[in-house]
């Protein structure tokens, strides 16, 4: 990074938001938008190609999600700082992003000053979180949560983790729907989301991953 300019790559699958943010950041002295990406896979490729100082990364993108994209970018180029900018307020998403190597986490309601401050901070080696997110991080480390309670697959919601545990126990979707008082369609949708988040091809692979993490063994 030069002393004058922070080069930024923007990754978001919504073109209106992505292009609007590019225009906004491009108008800020000291920030250059080096490129954009429409999904996680493209973000990884563009980061390797452009070697920006900072990647501003959405989480929910088609194909490769922002969490896995962050993990790959940081693994390939540890000097690149990633700021996650997302609609997701879920603790699981927040901590998955941190584990993946993100140095910043903002909600999409953040204003221009907050976004610029986050980009500048992470470019200089700091970690930064939006005010609401920072409070939750503090609550996690000072509150009731402990390392021993760290859940498997933090990218999953509590409901998805519950369903995965039943999948790992060999239950069918119909049995899971009955056990959890859910509609079969809701279970199917959750199972599809689980497969996508775990990057597995089918139920058998999901069961192996889940059982390796200790899920479903006692059911």
UniProtKB/TrEMBL annotation:
What's in the keyword line of the UniProt record? DNA-binding, Phosphoprotein, Transcription, Transcription regulation
Could you tell me which residues carry 4-aspartylphosphate? 58
Q: Does the keyword Phosphoprotein apply?
A: yes
Q: Spell out where the chain crosses the membrane.
A: none
Q: What is the name attached to this protein's record?
A: Response regulator
Q: Which CDD domains match?
A: LuxR_C_like, REC_NarL-like
Keyword Ribosomal protein assigned to the entry: answer is no
Family matches, as Pfam families: GerE, Response_reg
Q: Which domain of life is it from?
A: Bacteria
Q: Which residues form the Response regulatory domain?
A: 7-123
Q: Which residues form the HTH luxR-type domain?
A: 149-214
- UniProt source species: Nonomuraea guangzhouensis
